[in-house]
Write a structure and sequence with these properties.
The structure holds two protein chains of two kinds. By secondary structure, chain A is mainly alpha-helical. Chain A is 74% helix and 1% strand. The radius of gyration of chain A is 21 Å and the shape is globular. In chain A, 43% of the residues are buried. By secondary structure, chain B is α/β, with parallel strands linked by helices. Chain B has ten helices and ten strands. Chain B starts with a strand and ends with a helix. The chains are: A mainly alpha, B alpha/beta.
């Protein structure tokens, strides 16, 4: 793709994305969730796809951001008891309080998530392969159970986010643009990261970490940065999502390992892990399919979702982008050079 | 001046004594050979030198400073690099990318992580790929290359890192015999033109006799003989070790 055509392509997608909530007003919340899914897939892919560290623990940072934001919103303007008594009421917070609290909370959540990713990373990023995957799976479960045991954040019965003030207009549109901004930021920042030495280094770690160490790479440094980048955007997105959902359950919303935690892996794999657009495409296909299941196969939606997961893993092990790479390599001049493909045959 | 000095190095794995009291010396600017039958402890010695596992006793000094307590990436950043017997490259990256990430990481800070690679790196990568004869394959995935080509790529990656001392673990194993002469020539040029000291493990006697100025021979984890190629080649103990007289 030439440079100009690329910018036209990006421009079209951007305009379509800006207009989407007005084109499909009935689906604003669903479209907001679509951006969240794209963000999930992108932030998982930097670890699992680009660096080869299959993390089932990324949802921990999402939950941390969600709780941090809710606590910030509560503690900025209320005492805990007072908040419990008014939290279900409409217009208990003013629009400016709501917005200030949410964005401060998202920032605090993102920073706390990065901090925790760094601390955890020092401890467990030395694990390789399956051991890392199992360990992160344990982290998710531990985080959910721990959050359910802390009364300050509502314990097992969860926490309520402030009610969205009527004066701010449609809730769906508001969160659509918040989550869209976060997902686009994630895409742009990651694309910049992948084009630098960092991108090459984490690819090298994926392909052969022992070799990378033997060549003198600061592997620990790169791995920690990748996890922190992932945690930053997940933390911020968690804060927004907590407010969008309204109710923060420790196991089903915040640290939802069996839904969000698994979906982020599936979406990245479906689209093609280790590619820039793969996670975006995978998230879109997965989210739309899943919503269709809920609408048209109600009662069997979980079964259909399970079947979809099996189909993804069996028939698209390299994802949609991997499938395209395999069948139309000429579209991706970067990996298979026209000039040398004849020599490549000559080698055999 | 000696580039690398290994003194009385011993290493055992459980009950197996892989290296016992080995002392070798690699002077700066030379090509030194390390030979021995299979299982004689050559690769174990390499691994001990580059920090893969700690020594049980003994010392390893690189350019005068003790490195036996350092870890692999630290030693690599000092300029002591090794290639692997089982060739290791980054299979899902292109050859050029393999080269780009192999730049020396000696003086890097956090800022370098996020910087784009300077054009000099591209030029150097192209130049070295040309040096090993892989220029036309530079945009192919490294994993799609043949085994011999991967060995050449690994060698080029090592050169990209500007090492002072390069440990090569069987550089000609699996390479087409007609290409071996070209490889010997390139190893000699790396030594002469780029000033890289080489320590080479090799099973192919013709190669090592051509290449090395001084040869150490290991057998059963011990240093059996050392000397110039002719004397080692004619040493009765070395011949016995290779023919299984022990």
């Amino acid at each position: 793709m030439t440079r100009n055509r690329k910018y036209v392509f990006y421009g079209l997608i951007f305009v379509l994305a800006l207009a989407a909530p007005f084109l499909a007003p009935d689906y604003q919340t669903q479209l907001a969730f679509l951006w969240l899914m794209i963000l999930f897939a992108l932030t998982w892919d930097i670890m699992g796809g680009q660096m080869g560290y299959n993390s089932f623990g990324n949802v921990v940072f999402f939950g941390i951001g969600m709780y941090t934001t809710a606590v910030t919103q509560r503690n900025l303007y209320f005492e805990v008891e007072q908040y419990v008594s008014v939290s279900g009421l409409v217009d208990a917070v003013t629009p400016s309080q709501y917005v200030t609290g949410m964005f401060l909370g998202m920032g605090a959540g993102a920073i706390l998530a990065v901090f925790i990713a760094f601390i955890l990373g020092i401890g467990i990023l030395g694990l390789r392969g399956h051991y890392f995957a199992i360990c992160t799976l344990g982290l998710t479960i531990a985080a959910g159970e721990t959050a359910g045991g802390i009364d300050y954040i509502g314990g097992g019965s969860g926490m309520v986010a402030p009610v969205f003030p009527l004066a701010l207009g449609e809730k769906g549109i508001f969160f659509y643009y918040v989550l869209m901004t976060l997902a686009v930021m994630t895409f742009v920042v990651f694309q910049r990261l992948y084009s630098s030495q960092f991108g090459l280094a984490i690819n090298a770690i994926r392909d052969d970490e022992d070799k990378a160490e033997a060549m003198g790479l600061h592997t620990t440094r790169y791995k920690a940065v990748a996890w922190c980048a992932s945690a930053f955007f997940l933390g911020a997105a968690g804060g927004a999502t907590g407010n969008l959902v309204g109710f923060i359950d420790p196991l089903d919303v915040a640290f939802a390992g069996s839904t969000f935690g698994v979906w982020m892996v599936l979406m990245a794999i479906l689209g093609g892990k280790g590619t820039m657009w793969g996670p975006v495409i995978g998230a879109a296909v997965f989210h739309i399919t899943q919503e269709l299941f809920w609408t048209y196969l109600f009662g069997w939606q979980r079964v259909a979702l399970g079947a979809l997961i099996v189909i993804i893993v069996v028939f698209f092990p390299k994802g949609i982008m991997g499938f395209l790479h395999h069948h139309w390599p000429q579209l991706f001049g970067q990996t298979v050079d026209e000039a040398s493909s004849s020599e490549r045959e000559g080698k055999a | 001046m000696s580039m690398l000095q290994v003194s009385n190095a011993s290493k055992s794995f459980g009950g197996v004594l892989a290296n016992r009291d080995i002392s070798i010396e690699v002077p700066e600017g030379k090509i030194i050979g390390l030979i021995g039958p299979n299982g004689s402890g050559k690769t174990t010695l390499f691994n001990s030198i580059v920090g893969y596992h700690p020594l049980d006793s003994g010392s390893v000094r690189f350019q005068g400073s003790e490195i036996s307590k350092m870890i692999v990436p630290q030693i690599a950043r000092l300029g002591l690099l090794r290639t692997f017997q089982q060739t290791r490259i980054y299979g899902k990256m292109t050859c050029v990318q393999n080269m780009q990430i192999s730049i020396p990481h000696r003086n890097t800070n956090i800022g370098h992580m996020f910087a784009k690679l300077p054009p000099e790196v591209m030029e150097k990568a192209d130049h070295l790929l040309d040096f090993v004869g892989l220029f036309s394959k530079r945009k192919l995935l490294a994993g799609d290359l043949s085994f011999g080509q991967q060995k050449l790529l690994e060698f080029a990656m090592a050169l990209m890192n500007d090492p002072k001392l390069l440990l090569l673990d069987e550089p000609t194993a699996g390479i087409n015999p007609t290409l071996i002469n070209g490889l010997i020539d390139r190893l000699k040029r790396a030594n002469a033109d780029f000033g890289i000291t080489l320590l080479v493990i090799e099973h192919n006697m013709r190669v090592i006799m051509n290449l090395a100025e001084h040869i150490y021979c290991l057998a059963h984890g011990e240093l059996l003989a050392e000397g110039n190629p002719e004397s080692v080649q004619n040493d009765q103990r070395v011949i016995d070790a290779y023919l299984g007289a022990h």
